TrEMBL record:
Name of the protein: GntR family transcriptional regulator
Short name of any one Pfam family annotated for the protein: FCD
Molecular function GO terms recorded: DNA binding; DNA-binding transcription factor activity
Native source species: Paenisporosarcina antarctica
Keywords: DNA-binding, Transcription, Transcription regulation
Signal peptide positions (record): none
Classification of source organism: Bacteria, Bacillati, Bacillota, Bacilli, Bacillales
InterPro entries for this protein: GntR_C, TF_FadR/GntR_C, Tscrpt_reg_HTH_GntR, WH-like_DNA-bd_sf, WH_DNA-bd_sf
Annotated ranges, domain HTH gntR-type: 17-83
Transcription is among the record's keywords: yes
Length: 240
């Protein structure tokens, strides 16, 4: 890949990834940011020339993006589909489902080490803000939530997370960059919300967790109640 080209996606996040994956990350964030418009036809030859690579990693990248439904593969090339408001809403619905499920499992665990790990990540987030580094803040933000999800050691929940993560990560990165430029004071609220997550996990207090979820997701009260009820019913069925 060309060293002189200006990239939107942080190269340090994917330094050890294959060229195809790195290309997918860059094309994904360009599509989600609107730099590459909906309806654009992506040509393998043109992309190979632009990024100064062979067509093979371009094909790999386009296949990855096609599985995420942000492009559509056709004979003429790949057509950019992009993300609709409904797509974004559904991505955050997935996050809500995952985090609610995970917390229901966490309340039955020893969370001492998890709380320590999350507290360290929270400190790194605060350091990133001091240095006006939205990219590092975004990286630590995603790591914070992924650490919570990994803590329950549930392979299929992790699979769902990993499938949603690439698009979600780009949305978070773009959001944090915009926040730094336009309303940097809002980072204090974001940090406080992560404090609520840590407090909820440490105390295993459901009300605090709902408060934390409210800060991340709009109109979730009914959804959270329904999801928790479903988890409790499933647990009882397994125990019978």
């Amino acid at each position: 890949m060309s060293e002189s080209m200006e990239y939107l996606y942080p190269s340090k996040w994917i330094a050890s990834a294959s060229t195809g994956v790195r290309l997918a990350c860059e094309l994904r964030i360009r599509i989600i940011s609107g730099t590459i418009k909906k309806g654009t036809v992506l040509s393998e030859n043109k992309l190979a020339a632009e990024f100064e690579v062979s067509r093979s990693p371009i094909r790999e990248a386009l296949k990855i993006l096609a599985t995420e439904n942000i492009i559509r593969l056709e004979r003429m090339g790949a057509v950019v589909v992009g993300l609709s408001e409904q797509d974004i809403k559904e991505i955050y619905d997935v996050r809500l489902v995952i985090e609610t499920f995970v917390y229901e499992r966490i309340v039955k665990m020893d969370t001492t080490e998890l709380v320590k790990e999350l507290s360290k990540i929270r400190e790194m987030m605060e350091v990133a803000i001091k240095y006006n580094d939205a990219d590092e803040f975004s990286y630590q933000d995603v790591l914070f939530h992924e650490t919570i999800i990994r803590s329950i050691d549930h392979s299929y929940i992790l699979l769902i997370w990993n499938n949603a993560k690439p698009v979600m990560e780009s949305l978070i990165l773009l959001s944090m960059r915009m926040r730094l430029e336009e309303k940097s004071d809002d980072f204090a609220r974001v940090l406080k919300n992560h404090d609520l997550y840590i407090e909820a996990i440490n105390s295993k207090n459901r009300d605090i967790m709902i408060q934390a979820l409210h800060q991340n997701f709009q109109d979730v009260q009914g959804k959270v109640d329904d999801l928790w009820m479903s988890q409790q019913m499933l647990t009882k069925e397994r125990e019978q």
